[in-house]
């Protein structure tokens, strides 16, 4: 996992690891800045309850032709969590500028009988994003 390199408050590199914080989905590393004396959590996704795996899987399930409700159910079953269809919808709205299938689906909302025309795996900061286009 990538380490935090700069303090988000003062942009100093004079930081140390300082314990861990327990969350519903595991532990997150805490950091302490020696310059501004602030403690912060090293999180790549700010203000997100669920991790990147859950979010990207929900978006991918939607991209392969499932409805919002079906996508939420599939993620809930796979990761043993309880996300709502509105959470999936919110995540889709956040990535609609970079997710071209969302734009196509808005123009033509009918399903394509599960036929995948194009599949691509992207990697960003050590995370794999699987997108499948119909």
Protein described:
The structure is a single chain. The protein is α+β, with helices and mostly antiparallel strands. Helix content is 32%, strand content 25%. The chain is built from 4 helices and 5 strands, in the order βββααααββ. It has helices at 52-63, 68-79, 85-95, 100-107; strands spanning 15-23, 26-33, 39-41, 118-124, 127-133. The protein has a 3-stranded antiparallel β-sheet, with no helix packed on it. It has a two-stranded antiparallel sheet with strand order 4-5. It starts with 14 loop residues before the first strand and ends with a strand. The mean pLDDT is 80.
The share of residues in helices is 25-40%
Q: What is the terminal-to-terminal distance?
A: 33 Å
Number of helices: 4
- Could you state the oligomeric state of the chains shown? single chain
Note the run of SSEs as H and E: EEEHHHHEE
Give the helix/strand class.
alpha+beta
Number of strands: 5
The overall pLDDT average reads: 80
Q: Judging from the principal axes of the Cα atoms, what is the shape?
A: elongated
**Biggest sheet, in brief?**
3 strands, antiparallel
Taking all Cα atoms into account, the compactness measure Rg is 18 Å
- Going across the biggest sheet, name each strand in turn: 1-2-3
Indicate the proportion of strand residues: 25-35%
- Uncertain runs with pLDDT below 50, 5 residues or more? none
